[in-house]
């Protein structure tokens, strides 16, 4: 299967949130970009002002509200929308896609396949077959074969400020990795490749749970010893959960795993960290969600992974405690006391 010349073609970005905007600006340094937003008023405002999310848009970006037009003009498309709305957006895009399209998503979340009208809270267990990564959603809903993802320590504000950073483009296809590197790489943004698509997706997803816990530790006023304990045990837990979903250990030891974990567990710019911090300060989850402009993916991920762990008998005490704090009325202090008493007899048991 041959690809059209991507260097001369317009590149599509679906999603005009803070991360989508940052990626669009990076792409625009090398290519013309069509950036899709669902809200027509937002598109009109971006077109008139050249600004989105308080950031100036690169002159090579054209705001767009027409998925058919975007698919017709862009062979390479970067969907960067919340996991909750991801399948719906891909379903809307699907009629306009062809096998020559390349999709590289930047969504760090999971999709669950449960009957309509059902809520995840009514499930105690979820199997692997009921949980989909975003690349699997793309393959479910479209004719596109060449799929990839972006993952890494990519805090949107720092990307927007042009600070040095890096990401991983993961795909089973070398061509997708090469396309992603060619389109994204610049003097301040390094792009690595990885063939373990599922593993890299899961690394980006699962670290959000640990980031919520890290924010809670900071909200409790605890120091670096506690943070080091959490990050190291969190990485172990991520690997066990990731293996239950079909990921390989190696994916978690690189930029998309430990790199992203360190960044989000130490940054007030992380939405997931912020959720944990505010919980420890006494706010409720409903209050926090209502006041946040964008989704903290870890909240949904915690619900899914708690049920996967139940189904697979995976010990995931951090995930369990975060779930209890978010949804079962436990305080952050009570969760900390439980974890400090948990019998971790072996430091590393997966090598």
Write up this protein.
The protein has 351 residues and is of the alpha/beta class. The protein has two domains: 10-195, Rossmann fold, CATH 3.40.50.720; 202-341, Orthogonal Bundle (N-(1-d-carboxylethyl)-l-norvaline Dehydrogenase, domain 2), CATH 1.10.1040.10. The protein is 48% helix and 14% strand. An eight-stranded mixed beta sheet has the order 5-2-1-6-7-10-11-12, sandwiched between helices. Helix 8 packs parallel to helix 11 (271-280) and helix 13 packs across helix 14. The two termini are 38 Å apart.
Question: Secondary structure elements and their pairing?
Answer:
Elements: E1 10-14, H1 18-27, E2 33-36, H2 40-49, E3 51-52, E4 55-56, E5 61-64, H3 67-73, E6 74-79, H4 83-93, E7 102-105, E8 111-112, E9 131-132, H5 134-141, E10 146-151, H6 156-160, E11 165-170, H7 174-184, E12 189-194, H8 197-219, H9 224-244, H10 255-264, H11 271-280, H12 285-291, H13 297-312, H14 317-327, H15 332-341
Parallel strand pairs: 1-2, 1-6, 2-5, 6-7, 7-10, 11-12
Antiparallel strand pairs: 3-4, 8-9, 10-11
Helix pairs in contact: 4-5, 8-9, 8-10, 8-11, 8-13, 13-14, 14-15
Helix content: 40-55%
Largest sheet: 8 strands, mixed
Decide which structural class fits the backbone.
alpha/beta
Within the CATH hierarchy, at the fold level, what is the topology of the largest domain? Answer: Rossmann fold
Give, in spatial order, the strands making up the sheet with the most strands. 5-2-1-6-7-10-11-12
Which architecture of the largest domain does the CATH hierarchy give at level 2? 3-Layer(aba) Sandwich
How many structural domains?
Answer: 2
Class of the largest domain in CATH?
A: Alpha Beta
Oligomer: single chain
As a percent range, the share of strand residues is: 5-15%
Order of helices and strands: EHEHEEEHEHEEEHEHEHEHHHHHHHH
Shape: globular
For CATH, the homologous superfamily of the largest domain is named as NAD(P)-binding Rossmann-like Domain
| Helical run tally | 15
Measured between the Cα atoms of the first and last residue, the distance is 38 Å
Average pLDDT metric? 93
What is the CA-atom radius of gyration, in angstroms?
Answer: 20 Å
Number of strands: 12
Low-confidence stretches: 1-6
